[in-house]
Structure formats: C-alpha cells, structure tokens
Amino acid sequence: MHIRRPPPPRILVNNVSCMRNAQTVLRNINVSVHDGSALVLTGANGSGKTTFLRMLAGFSRPSAGEILWNGHDITSPGVYQQYKLQLNWLSLKDAIKSKFTVLENVQWYEVLEGKDGNASLPALELMGLGRLANEKPRMLSMGQRKRLQLARLLAIGRPIWLMDEPSVALDAEGVQLLEYIIAKHRKEGGIVFVTTHLPIEIEDAMYLRLPQRFPRRKTLVDLLD
C-alpha cells in the first residue's frame, strides 16, 4: 500500500534566534508554513515582530537557527536571489512617490516586475481608489495611502506577503477589504505573514505571540534614575 506523504513546508523557520544590540530579541522560534497558510504575529512593542519579518525578507540574518524556503537556506546567495522574487513587503513606510499620480505609483512597481501595467487600475478600483487614479498622492488621507500600498501588492502579484501592521490607518471598510484580499490570495495558494496589534479576521490562521524582550542589563543611566 502506497502511503502518501504530506508535502514539505514551503517555508520552515527552524529554531531561529536573533540578537540585536547585544540583546536577545527572538529565541528558539519554530514555524512550518505551507502554501495557502497565514501566520499572524502578535506581541508587545519591542517583542520582535518586525524583526521576525525582516529575517523572513532576508534583510537581516538569524543569530542562530535557519530559515528554509523549499528546503534551502534563504541566506545562501544563490537561493536568496530566487527567494526574494517571491516576496511582497508591506511596511509602515509607504514608499509613495509624490511626483507620480496614484495610478503611476502602482504601475511603476508593476512595470519593474516586467509586466504591462494593466493590473494597476483594477487593483486600485478594488481598493476603492479608482476615482483618484489620476490625482497626486498629496490628495490622499493616511487610510487611502494604505489602500494604495495594498493595491500595489495586488498588482505585483508575488506569492509571499510580508505585512507589517497592514490595518493601521484603515477604516472599517478598509479592514474588510484587507481581509478579503488576504483570503483571496490564500485561496490562490499564496502565503501571508501579518504583524498586528489590531483585530483582523483571517480564517484558519496560525498565531504566534512573541514574548516581551528578555530583560536587558542595567546601565549607569538606569542606576541614576
């Protein structure tokens, strides 16, 4: 009888720790992530949520352990060149160019992907920004700027989303749109990593609550207080 084995995880975080400024930020993190999965990272400020995303993006290296993509260490130069093409990064910095129109701010990134730019307007319309496509970004509210970032994710179309506080500045309708595009992305086999302090409805998501950072050593300033 042939026993069908489950597929290996697309991304494996294997016993990962991270040091920053001589302090332990993350310790012994283990996560297995398959296609269509979502991982929600929660925890207090300074617990290492953004640090975790930055390691997944390859911006920084673990001080111990390894992050594997398709069974290969993402820090290996040859592997990382392929891995980074799978990633879509959404951070608190919106990287919106003021000299471009709203539409051009999406098309610019789409064209950089080697695409024709035709996905940009439908993405903006889905995020409720279609009527502002030809306006300059200075006309946008903070919530609309966040929607523009999300439209960019949709237009670029990479499979792994790394989302740092994606619901910040969004109104209730914006949060519903965020939940919708995450669900749609997962149904298409995409993977989503989300850090958040605010409630976001993500069906069957895995949750990882990071503990507060390990106490640092007291300095002379502490003793003087």
From TrEMBL:
Keywords: ATP-binding, Cytochrome c-type biogenesis, Membrane, Nucleotide-binding, Translocase, Transport. Transmembrane segments: none annotated. Signal peptide: none annotated. The keyword RNA-binding does not apply. SUPFAM superfamilies: P-loop containing nucleoside triphosphate hydrolases. Pfam families: ABC_tran (PF00005). GO terms for biological process: cytochrome complex assembly. Residues 11-224 form the ABC transporter domain. This is ABC transporter domain-containing protein. It comes from Dendrobium nobile (Orchid). The lineage of its organism: Eukaryota, Viridiplantae, Streptophyta, Embryophyta, Tracheophyta.
